[in-house]
Amino acid sequence: VQYTDKYFEDYEVGETFERRDVRTITDAEVTNFAGVSGDFHPLHMSDEFAAKTPYGERVAHGDLVFVLAEGLVGETNLHSVSYGHDNLRFVEPVYLGDTLSFHREVIETADYDEQWGRVVYRYTIRNQTDEVVLVDDHITLVEKRPA
Amino acid sequence: VQYTDKYFEDYEVGETFERRDVRTITDAEVTNFAGVSGDFHPLHMSDEFAAKTPYGERVAHGDLVFVLAEGLVGETNLHSVSYGHDNLRFVEPVYLGDTLSFHREVIETADYDEQWGRVVYRYTIRNQTDEVVLVDDHITLVEKRPA
Amino acid sequence: VQYTDKYFEDYEVGETFERRDVRTITDAEVTNFAGVSGDFHPLHMSDEFAAKTPYGERVAHGDLVFVLAEGLVGETNLHSVSYGHDNLRFVEPVYLGDTLSFHREVIETADYDEQWGRVVYRYTIRNQTDEVVLVDDHITLVEKRPA
Amino acid sequence: VQYTDKYFEDYEVGETFERRDVRTITDAEVTNFAGVSGDFHPLHMSDEFAAKTPYGERVAHGDLVFVLAEGLVGETNLHSVSYGHDNLRFVEPVYLGDTLSFHREVIETADYDEQWGRVVYRYTIRNQTDEVVLVDDHITLVEKRPA
Amino acid sequence: VQYTDKYFEDYEVGETFERRDVRTITDAEVTNFAGVSGDFHPLHMSDEFAAKTPYGERVAHGDLVFVLAEGLVGETNLHSVSYGHDNLRFVEPVYLGDTLSFHREVIETADYDEQWGRVVYRYTIRNQTDEVVLVDDHITLVEKRPA
Amino acid sequence: VQYTDKYFEDYEVGETFERRDVRTITDAEVTNFAGVSGDFHPLHMSDEFAAKTPYGERVAHGDLVFVLAEGLVGETNLHSVSYGHDNLRFVEPVYLGDTLSFHREVIETADYDEQWGRVVYRYTIRNQTDEVVLVDDHITLVEKRPA
Q1: Which of A97, C12, D4, E146 has the least CB density, counted as fewest CB within 10 Å?
Q2: In terms of Cα–Cα distance, which of A20, A125, A141, A128 is closest to A75?
C-alpha cells in the first residue's frame, strides 16, 4: 500500500503511469470474480459452452479487467475520492492466459467547487500483443491545497 | 443461471426489473473484493483509519457495488454482448451492513449495424433507507432476429 | 437471482429444467471448495498422489458437484424450504476440465401437513460425454396457496 | 491432513468420533460458500430480507453445514471411497454466530463385493445449545484387507 | 503495485517505512487464511472453544499477521529476492477487530557475493494500543549495481 | 481436525512426521494467497514478466509454501502455543505444478519456565524431484503435565 500525497494543484494533464505485463488473467481470477460478483455466465465458466460461441474459448469478465485497473495502477491518494466513470468500453475480449499492461494518464483537471478539483484519468489496458482491450475514464475529486 | 432468450426487437424502452433488499454488504464481501481487485485502500480495510475520515467508518469499494449489479439483476442473454458503461456514478457511500436493492430499466434501443442493435440499461442501486448509492448506464449489443 | 413464485399446487410431477454445458470444473473451483469445506484429501489436491491411484489424475470433490446443483438449477422460491436429500450418489468421478450439464425433474408431490406440501426434485448431472456423474433427490417443502 | 489406514475388517458398528465446538458459522463462511456454489438466496445474503421471514435473521446454507462435516470429522482413509448419502436432513436452521459440534458413528458394515465392503457413518451436527441441526448417513466403500 | 528500483548500494541501515492503522483483522481474513493454509485450529475458528481458553475469544493466526507484513510494507524491488526469515516472534495475540500498524527498518547491509548484497529488514507490527504483536527479520538479497 | 493431546514430557528429540506428495501448488493457490496477503508481485502473477526473469516462469510465493507447512503437518495440540520461527529459508523456487512433501522433526526440547517447555520442530519441504525447497524451525511452547 503506497500512498500518494498530492493536492489538486499537484496534478497536470499529460502525467502518465504504467505497469507493463503485470498480470496474467487466469482461471482462478475468473472463478474468484464470479464468486464475488455472482456472474457465472457460461461464456466465462464453461469450456464447452464457450467453444460453440464466436470466441471459441472462455473469456474473462470485462468487469474483472476493469476492477484490476484500480488495484494495479490506481492512485491511493488520501486527498482523493472516486466520483465515477465514463467511456468504459470493452474493446477486445480477454482470454485466459492473456497478460495485461495498464496505462493511466491524467486527461483533465478542472475546478469543481471551493474545496475540490476534478481530476480525470484515462486508463488504457493492453494485452500481450499490444491490442487495447479496455478503456475507461475515471473521474475523481481531489482536495485543493489548504491555504 | 437463468437465461433470457431475446433478440434486439424484443426490447422496449421502459422495461424494468428489480430485486429489493437482495444483498447486505458485509466485511467478507469487501475483503474478498479487495483480494480480487488488489485494492486494499485503508478506507475499506481499516476501522481506525476510517474512523478519522469524514465517513467515520469503513466504506465498501464503489466498484464492488458496481459489479454486483451485473451479477444480481443483469440479464444473461446469449444473444447479447457487453459493450461498455457510461455515467457510472458513486452517489453515496455504502457502509458495511447496508442492504442494497437493484433496479434496471431499458433507457435506449437503437440500431447499431446490420447484425446488432444497441440496448442501454440504467441501473439504480439504493440502500435500505432508499437513498440512491450508485447509478450506471450499461450499453449492450443484442443480435437482431434472424430473418 | 431469479425468483420463482409458486405454491405447492403449482408443481406437477414430470416438470423438468435443464442447463447444458454450464460449468467446467477447474482447479480453482476444487481449491476454493477445499478451503471452504476443509477437505484437502490429496486425491483432490495432489497430481503426484492422484497419479498413483486408479483414477490416474486429480478428481473433484463429490460434494462440490453436489452443491453446484443447487446454485445452478435449484429454484429460488420464496415459498419453499429445503427439507433434505436422499439417494445422493457419486456415480462417476469428475475430473478437472470436465464440463457438467444439470437436469432437474419433479419426481414427487405429496401432502405434508395443513400448511405445507412436499415436492421432491431429482437432479441428474452429466459430464461432457453424457455420462451420469451424480444423482440426488432433493426434498423440499412448499407452502400451500393461501385460501 | 491426518490419514487413517484401515481396511473394511477394521470397522465396527458403534465406533464414534466427535469434535465439540469446533466451528463457528460466520458471515465469511456463508459468503464464501455462496461464491463457490452460486447460491445467493437472500435468506443467506440479506439482513433486510431475512428479517421479514419467520427466521428473523440470516440463515446459513444447509449445504454448507453438510460439507463441513466431511472436512471436520470425515476420515481421510486412502482405502476408502465415497459412495453416497441418504437421510440428509436439515433439522434446524443454523444462524450466523452458531458454533457447531460434529459427531460421527459407524452405523452399518456390510459386504459389498469381493473387493469392497460398505461402511455407513451417521453424522449428527449440533449447535451450541445442543440442538441437532443436521443429520446425514454417509455411505462409503472400504477395501477389504488383501489376503 | 508500486516498484522500487534500487540496487544494493542504495540501501542504508536505519531507513524506515511505516503504514499506521492500515488493516483491521477481521473474521473474513481469518477465514480466508484458514482456507488457504488449511489451518482450522478452533482457537481461530470457534467462539465457544476460544471462550474457554485463556485468550477468551478467537485469535488470528500468527502466520496471517506475518504474511500481511510483506503485502503491506514489503518492497517490490525487481532487483531483490527473498532469502529467508529469522527471529519471527508472535509477541502478543491479535484479536478479531484489532487494527495493525506496520513498521519496516533496514537493520543490516552486508556483502554476500560478487553479484549480490544482503539487506535485512526488521518488521515490527503493532496493534491499535501500540503494543508490539509480531517482530520478524526478513533477509533479502539485492543485486549490486552493474559496473 | 485431528488433535494431539500431548504434554511437554511426551515429546522426544528425533520424532518425525511426514506427508509425501500431499499438495500440488497451483495457480489457484497462488492467486488466493496473493488476495489474502496483498502480495501481487508480477513474478507470481504474470507469465510474461516471469518469462523475462532467470526463473523463466511464474514462481509461488515463498510465504505460501511456509504457511502450508503448518496446515499440512503442523500439530493441533491444545496444550501448545506458537512462539516463533527461526532459520526460515527459501532454498529453491517452487513452480506452479510442483508437488510438495512435508517433513517435520522435533529437534529440541528444553525447559522454558515452571509451566511451559519449549519444543522446536524442523520443517523440511521437498518438491517432486526430492529437492529441498524450504526449511524452517518452528518454536512452540507446550504445557508441562499437571502434577
Answers
A1: E146
A2: A141
